Amino acid sequence: MSETKIPYKIYLTENEIPTAWYNLRADMKVKPAPLLNPGTGKPLTAEEMSGIFCEELVRQELDNDTAYYPIPEDIRNFYKMYRPSPLVRAYCLEEKLGTPAKIYYKFEGNNTSGSHKLNSAVAQAYYAKQQGLKGVTTETGAGQWGTALSMACSYFELDCKVFMVKVSYEQKPFRREVMRTYGASVTPSPSMETEIGKKILAEHPGTTGSLGCAISEAVEVAVTNPGYRYVLGSVLNQVLLHQSVIGLEAKAALDKYGIKPDVIIGCAGGGSNLGGLIAPFMGEKLRGEADYQIIAVEPASCPSFTRGKFAYDFCDTGMICPLAKMYTLGSSFIPSPNHAGGLRFHGMSTILSQLYHDGYMEARAAEQTAVFEAAETFARVEGILPAPESSHAIRAAIDEALKCKETGEEKTILFGLTGTGYFDLTAYQQFNDGVMTDYIPTDEDLAKGFAALPQVPGVE
Amino acid sequence: MSETKIPYKIYLTENEIPTAWYNLRADMKVKPAPLLNPGTGKPLTAEEMSGIFCEELVRQELDNDTAYYPIPEDIRNFYKMYRPSPLVRAYCLEEKLGTPAKIYYKFEGNNTSGSHKLNSAVAQAYYAKQQGLKGVTTETGAGQWGTALSMACSYFELDCKVFMVKVSYEQKPFRREVMRTYGASVTPSPSMETEIGKKILAEHPGTTGSLGCAISEAVEVAVTNPGYRYVLGSVLNQVLLHQSVIGLEAKAALDKYGIKPDVIIGCAGGGSNLGGLIAPFMGEKLRGEADYQIIAVEPASCPSFTRGKFAYDFCDTGMICPLAKMYTLGSSFIPSPNHAGGLRFHGMSTILSQLYHDGYMEARAAEQTAVFEAAETFARVEGILPAPESSHAIRAAIDEALKCKETGEEKTILFGLTGTGYFDLTAYQQFNDGVMTDYIPTDEDLAKGFAALPQVPGVE
User: Fold this and answer.
1) Can you list the domains of chain A with their CATH numbers?
2) ipTM given for this complex
């Protein structure tokens, strides 16, 4: 144990911003299963994907072998606006809990998008610009991804069309204005602007929407408008690649002080933050160089890892996207409204799904009120108002630290604080007023989603 | 000119957080005029003040001589949660403007209160706790001060009662929830909870309130409840003392790279940010060691410096506070609603008023739509969504940089970016929709305020 006094916040210098992203797949013995064409059941080719995604991003999506991707200079310059992000020693939280554990968090909320999403947004906008596109379409749940993409598109002067899950659109009206300030157009989803939106509205009038619906609409607009491509803020391999900057920075900062975490915790919706945070640590684990306890935390209302099936499924509700092999609740599963809009996706990154399946990480589900209790505790002592999504990780970190208090273990805990809750005050108000409720799907609810899992020709 | 490549963000280490605040008054040849007891017209004594303010803060308020006040360790530890704040080189803004000017901003919005207000809130809460008080009362305009104080009181386990200017309370409902999350109670002002509130409501039914009203209510509650004192987020000498941490850090960061600003710009409401930012620079100017062009920017709707009178006046609308000699529009002046709630105060710090009167600084007024144009430009290239208050400084910085573009001068401009605009999206929405208006008081409007200036026995 080093005797050096660890600062409250460890900042790397700008020169220490990683110069390359790390591709976790290169070190996976069992690679994530390929995306499939839902019509043929065959792995999606680069050619098929390039109608939806930018070419360079297709290459990144399909590349299971290259360990490091150099970060283009324009992207590194953009990163310098808000990176390196601080790695914070939670001295005040430790004291409040009376735990011998040492708690660190990597804080990704120090930018206007309010979350880590900007790390991939700028990369995807950059490659779209490089390809000479006019614009991009996307979906957003909590609004963080949409805001991030709006910022990135504004910087690179690209058109940006965002479909925002209706429940979030209504809960977070101000998010829309941030996106508009950055020049984006924002449509609540499902909408009447797309064929798939009309179909979903006809079948489920009054639906509050889901990420799956919004993805379908954004993809439809991208493929039917020349000069446009679709971009996605989570789930995909390319996104985890870009988000590796989180883990690489966190590890570099810890290494500077000779600190090795015992437990690494991240919230999990589609997996972008978790996959990015754990990337270099998981790499060491896969290569047998080190061991870490890695914990994914998801909402009990949308428990893909803890109650889902590991199967091929559509990424979207409209069933127009490729099939991905992942832990899923079924693409027809629409979770009850909760306040962690960024964690309301029915599926999960194929990379993380494979790693979870192979026993390299654990998963837990947390209930909403317990999550907000953790958020409030954290806010009061650490000064940062956390996003509901991030607060899932806080909940687990506090639980682990309290276990250490019982056992006397001095574990080092690292968690990802993905963002801030400035646009989640409706949720905080419900919590402050004592009227927040928990939603847990019944086995029957889940069975419906599983029953609708696609039958893929030639695939179990 | 140094050849070193200046980073996008200059971060000091935690050890470089200033160990003492700087008291600008020590270097002023003409000291700011003392606060007066409105009944006797005599300078307020420490004894008289100690019924309203904490004892240590009274000492700081009255001390025109001590140049440096050591920062207590508990406060420095709190500062470590969010300080040092970054000094940012606005490379992207410079490029967008095509200016040869070099623009730097000291960003104080990287904390949950969203502004620099936390710097003084933690100090005031600390001294209240040291004195064994139960709690504190205050007013808040835009909500940033109230949020900051809530955070500080939560940290030191003090009760916190906030009167929030009604127009801001309505425009920023989520601010209330942040304060509640930190355990504070929040009341829209004017309210029926105080005698002065009832009186103001009777005289001005339907008023949207003002900082002056809210101050009166908060003071009334403090002086009528044992164990409580009143704390104020701006105007007072003690607040400028605490806020000197902004300027001291900014100067230390610039000095590291051998940079000397030519122009220093801050928005001015009560003067807390401006006074803090300029403190060490103004100190050099007062001692004849260096020269700087120092510019205060205020809203055209509340133009204390540019159209006010330098006279003794009440700090509050209810006329129960001491008299301060300052640039004022009259304590009865209630500015038209604008979106920079933090700049809607009728008066100004006595320190800054004296310095302005003595020719050490300039002042400008900016109209609201021009301010939001600057805010949007800044947000799109620098990535940070600025508070409307801060955007006044951005407006002037852009104007100065554009002048340099015309003349070819390579001036170095430093401005204070006091906070973020996450709770100002109603304002951004108006701007985005093209329905924002400008309000400029007529000479007749101002004449009414001046006519009501108090006649103080024995004072001109």
Assistant:
1) 3-17+82-114+244-451 (3.40.50.1100), 21-70+117-230 (3.40.50.1100)
2) 0.91
